[in-house]
Amino acid sequence: MSDSSPNDRRGSHLRLMTSNLMNGRGDPGAIADLIAERSVDIACFQELAPEQAEAISRVLPHGKLDPRTDHEGLGIALRCPGQVERLPIPQRDGRVVRLSPTDWPELDTTLEVLDIHVQAPHARPPPWKNLPTRRAQIDALLAYLDSVPAPHRVVAGDFNATPLWPVYRRMAKRLVDAPRAFARARGRRPAPTWGPLMLDGIRLLRIDHVFTQGVDTPHVELHRVRGTDHAALVVDLELV
Length: 240
Hints:
There is one protein chain. This protein is α+β, with helices and mostly antiparallel strands. The protein has one domain (14-239): Deoxyribonuclease I, Chain A (4-Layer Sandwich), CATH 3.60.10.10. The protein contains five helices and 13 strands. The protein has helices at 28-37, 50-59, 131-147, 166-174, 178-184; strands at residues 14-20, 42-46, 62-66, 74-78, 84-87, 94-99, 111-117, 153-158, 176-177, 208-213, 215-216, 220-223, 232-239. A hairpin with a 6-residue loop joins strand 5 and strand 6 (94-99). The radius of gyration is 16 Å and the shape is globular.
């Protein structure tokens, strides 16, 4: 998905990563190494477990990580200070942080970042039993976006929805799908982010997303994370 592999910063961009760590199965050392190698500034995690959180906090010491072992772990790790708060969402709260120019010299105005994990459609069989919860989660998220205006905003995470699903379509109607915009500008299609571990890294579905408002994304790339069935999505951010 990336059209180059530089690690240097272009201009005053911030670099954000989002990754589902498969409830502790993602290799903690590999995650920390990826953050360091790609000079990630902001990292949003889903299905975060304690050992992973410990490794991440060594390379991104700020933010707030809430690891668990029941697939509910979530957190935002930061290079510089930021107050991470809970965002009330049915079944699984999101996380939100507002990055201030006071603590982030790359910024000249506030940037809001949200970390979201939408319930999987197969969480409780039969699948249609999960539809009301998924709908309520997006209702709550969109209600927040409407009630708390922010000119510069990023919503990242595992939405458990491909572009064909209503969850995705409702988000894409309000915000820019950053990987899609990046790929289309280069005559490509955005790459899938999820695939069963048995396929040894082959990705089949695009269910991890980064949506933006008032933010350009001049560079997007995917990285395999050993042990998890989700690729890490890494996006450069430039406020407009």
